[in-house]
Amino acid sequence: MSTPPAGGDAGQRHAGLQVEDLSVAFDGVAVLDGVDLAVAPGEVLVLLGPSGCGKSTLLRTIAGLERPASGRVRWGDEDLTDVPTHLRQVGLVFQDHALFGHRDVAGNVGFALRVAGAEADVVAHRVARALDLVGLAGFEGRRVDTLSGGEAQRVALARSLAAAPRVLLLDEPLGSLDRALRERLTDELGVLLRRLGLAAVHVTHDHDEAFALADRIAVLGGGRIDRIGTPAEVWAQPGTVHAARCLGHDNLVALDADGGCPLGRLGDGPGTVLLRADRLVVAEPGQGVAATVVAVARRAGRPVASLSVGGLSVGGLSVRVPLADGAAQPVVGERVGLVVSDGAVVPLSG
Amino acid sequence: MTRSGRRVAGVARVAVWGIPAAFLAVFFLYPVATILVEGLGGEGVRRLVELPGRGSFRSVAWFTLWQAVASTVLTVVVALPGAHLLARRRFRGRALLRAATTVPFVLPTVVVGGAFLAVFDRFGLDDGPLRLTRTAGAVLVAHVFFNVAVVLRTVGTFWEGLDPRAGEQARVLGATPWQAFRWVTWPALRPAVAAASSIVFLFCFTSFGVVLVLGGPARATLETEVWRHAVARGDLASATAVALVQLAAVVATVMVSNRLQRRRAVVQRPVRRAPLPRAGRGLLAGNLALLGVVLGLPILVLVERSLRHVGGRSGGGWSGGWTGGWTLDHYAALADRVNLLPVSALGALGNSLLFAVAAAGMATVVGGLASVVVVHGRRAAARAFDLGMMLPLGASAVTLGFGMLLALDEPPLDLRSSRWLVPVAHALVGVPFVMRTVVPTLRSVDQRLREAAATLGASPARVRREVDGPLAVRALAVGAAFSVAVSLGEFGATSFLPRHPDRLTAPLALFRLLGVPGGALRGQAMALAVVLMLLTATAVLVIEGGRRHAVRGDW
Hints:
By secondary structure, chain A is α+β, with helices and mostly antiparallel strands. Chain A has helices spanning 55-63, 105-109, 111-115, 120-133, 149-162, 179-196, 207-213, 231-236, 241-246; strands at 17-26, 29-39, 44-48, 70-75, 78-79, 90-93, 167-171, 199-204, 216-221, 224-229, 252-255, 260-261, 264-265, 271-275, 280-283, 289-299, 302-309, 317-322, 335-340, 345-348.
């Protein structure tokens, strides 16, 4: 698998999908505003952002279902911007899978092949292979309205894969599933995408899903790319407040005009900083800054303490700190010390 | 409650279902039963058995069938691109197009017949090699005019509810726009198209006014045959036999149509309409032009003709004489008596308005009460009323009019000379419109709203008065406007009814004026048609205005 260059889009590359300075407007309102992206073959790029940030529009524009106001979409040296959808060789999987209700599973999965005029036995063979790939071997004759949500999503995926696309676009494909199923399918999808070696763009608003799948993550906000990089990079340096929120960071601290906050002076002036939870430690009273435990809960099975620094009143600060499992847990109301290690404070813009 | 109070409430409860039931039974079920009894008893059955042997009957039946099929196919072909545009595309004039499609649906058939006569005449299609006047072609074109709106509305609405992503998915998978339509959108659309087609087929199969005005004597359908036998010749036995065949055909069609309609389920979802791609502009322009020609041209020419002098030659067709300047003479002439008519055209318009008001009043009372039964009554009663009160709309105008002519002409019920008979016939057709407006409105009152009112201490009667009442009043007004529009244009049933010449309605007067070949009365006919059109258009505006104010309807 290729290891893409770190950080933003680094200069000209000539393989894979490239989106250059892409803008899309609906009724004069800009939805995407100068987006640049590159996805190499074999790479999974996850677009992360809240609903309405333009993620789906970006996918639809790559697929040719929306017209850009300006900018280009390319595959290698081939300019796709004015190529009609059906000639682009992209696969698109919708959240609610958009299966053809009047056809059975085989009819859905083999659709692209039949459109291309393939022989019946070729279609049957490739349909079987695609279904096998998504773990639904033997489902050919099933009616699509008898499928469970997870099965329907797999059929939708198989349908796109059977068309042998160059780019696979996934628009929150797991969004309508319940949590347990979603997590299992996320893992399966990751394995499958890596095995196929396709360029893939996966859209989600769930940061856990993003971190589980991505080679690189692009955080979208206000029609622009806020931050793009490997999961480790964007987690360590989200760059903006918006990106930090999207990525699931809890501890965003507003600073006053002097860069101060209840934890002390964390910057040179007003703004927001991120406290990286992995660099915070709950310690004995007297160490670090005095804090009070207001809650202890388990998030994804791991204990997390919510601490209040500087009292519960307005102006006080609430910080979430992961606790070491197994050790003696602090109890609510207990006074503790909060130790802020080196590198915990990450300045953010915006 | 006092004992007398309880008795009043009991009487009121009986009246709620009794009045609509009696109205339907006396004025619709009894007449239809009379057709059945007369047609199947003794002499009647002999005539019925003879019918298929007659060449003239066979050709009439054949024409009825093929013109209905051809009209339906043509209508669907003309309407489908427009339905796509309305459902999926954004363009300037979209709202206007949508509104325009309602107009032909409520225009009186005779007015449309007159408008097409004017068009054929205007463009020299009334004679020579391209003659359309008195041909099957004229009937087909007029049927397209009437029914394009039905397909645009029903299929367009259904199409809007379809998830566009299935089609988009097909495109992504490599299908051309046409393949995506053919293999994905069309199969999903087919039930709605089938349902709309069955309605259009029914309308064309039972078409009366259009065929009579535009088809000429050689182009008779089962409907016009009944009329010719009964009214023109006074041969009630033959008319009964044909009416029976017609009734059977209509019942069969309605059953098929209901089956088809039950299969369609629309799930509305908000869809962002895509702007029209450049390649689609041609399609849009072409389609709007076609709809413009089919829908707009007849009306424009009609208005133009009503404002032009009839000069020059009088004989030899009336095309030559229309080169004169602008004038209002034809409108002024509406007040004049002409030999052809027992009353002036203006008098006929007055009759029509009176009848329309009376019919709307009856339809509102009967339809309103029936709606209450449908919404609040027991299940069985609700279903019976829902279906039963719709029957007069499904039955053809001829069944309605001829049945009344047969049944209410002699004791025990001799109402034919009564001035109430025409409004009663119109009210029968108006009631379904009232119900289709009132029932969904009453049903739309959120159950939670009722419950909320009840928990705040309102009694059920109070809830009905405070919550349902104001909404129902508005819906009734819209329903009444529908009835007025229907009554003003009603031609088929009415043409069987008035024995009293002074009570001629405007559509009947128009029909007689159009029947004169010479040019002299054409101007007056055109003017009368325009006035009639304006009156129905006003009623439609009231309907559209009312609908914008939270009145729901199944239209």
